[in-house]
Amino acid sequence: MKNKLEIEHVEKSFFGKKALDNVSFQVNGGEIFGILGPNGAGKTTLIRIINRIIEADKGGVKLNGNLLSDKDLKKIGYLPEERGLYKSMTVYDHLIFLGRLRGLSKLEAKQKTNKWLQHFSIESWKTKRIEELSKGMAQKVQFIGTVLHEPELLILDEPLSGFDPINVALIMEELKRFKEEGKIIILSTHNMRSVEDICDKAILIHQAKKIAEGSISELRTVNYNDVYEIIFKGNMIAFANSLWAGFELLDKTILEDNNKFRVTVKLLGNNNFHDLLKVLMESIEIESAKKYLPSMQDVFIELTQEKTEKNA
Fold first, then answer.
1. What pTM was computed for the model?
2. Best CA proximity match to 281, nearest among 250, 251, 242, 248
3. Please, what's the b/e burial string for 98-136 (b: 16 or more CB within 10 A of its CB; e: otherwise)?
4. pLDDT tens per residue, the chain (312 residues)?
5. Thinking of the domain 227-292, which architecture would CATH place it in?
6. How far apart are CA 92 and CA 80, in angstroms?
7. CATH 3.30.1390.10 fits 4-220, yes or no
8. Where are the domains of the chain?
9. Rounded to whole angstroms, how far apart are CA atoms 52 and 151?
């Protein structure tokens, strides 16, 4: 049976203010799912409800078709944004402690701790106290503690925060491996580049509501279906003049000595890409032309601004 997490019409309020308003989505095993949103949007509240740290006012959370209960906590690996390790403990003792908390026997915890320390080539850290570690080293220890008990569901809140590029690549490789194993992986982050690189699907939460959901490619094209990027040599005035009412110039960048440009153009009405090329080729030298794909950062900013303006 394929792993599946279902969030059904979840609502939560604090002191009369909505933190989550009728939020629903589904995450399947074997995919990495992003929860995106600005500070205060409701991401942390949602993660705490899934972890059973707090309860929803309405709605529910199901794991593999059954309502999530306390007995399911051993199936969850949670890496919080606020890292919490006991500074006086050694790395080895701390990882065994975390494994025991998640239901492993002492022998199992020792075996799995040794396996992960060897996997990351950090056996020499065994006797180091947590307080002796750098922030990045402590992050790696906490990541191991999160996955030590081989959970079905991984919830990672800003998992790449504090890591250098080498360790970011290392953690992302581990997440891809967990994905191949069919685990449910939820990533909450502000790092839009990591979303593009690793997430399969995502939701965007803003002002307690879900305002967008889909695959990363869907989210990046939803408002840009008829936008193209053109790189050309020639005169910008001539380019602009060649665009009649059927096209809109959205953006332009000078690349070389006022003679080479990158522009984004939106098709209007019934015009197609062929129509655009036809009117441009008469006045400029086109070097490349392709469908414009915005970054997730662009999508994030546009959708949250759009929602804010509608509610103003």
1. 0.84
2. 242
3. bbeebebeeebbeebbeebbeebebeebeeeebeebeee
4. 578 999 999 999 999 999 999 999 999 999 999 998 888 889 989 999 999 999 999 999 999 999 999 889 899 999 887 767 899 999 999 999 999 999 999 999 999 999 999 999 999 999 999 999 988 888 899 999 999 999 999 999 888 776 778 888 888 899 999 999 999 999 987 777 778 888 999 999 999 999 999 999 889 887 777 899 999 999 998 899 888 888 999 999 999 777 899 999 999 999 999 999 999 998 899 999 999 988 888 888 888 876 665 665
5. 2-Layer Sandwich (3.30)
6. 20
7. no
8. 4-220, 227-292
9. 16
Helices (H), 14-155: 43-50, 91-101, 106-119, 135-147
CB burial of 232-269 (b: ≥16 within 10 Å; e: otherwise) equals bebebeebeebbeeebeeeeeeeeeeeeebebbbbbee
How many CA atoms lie less than 13 Å away from 27 in the CB half-sphere? 28
What's the one-letter identity of residue 241? N
For the record, the structure tokens of 239 come out as: 């380019």
Residue with tokens 């040794």: 114
Strands (E), the chain: 4-14, 17-28, 31-36, 58-63, 66-67, 76-79, 153-157, 184-188, 201-206, 209-215, 227-233, 247-256, 260-267, 285-291
Q: What would the two tokens of residue 52 be?
A: 């059973």
The answer to whether 51 and 157 have CB atoms below 8 angstroms apart is no
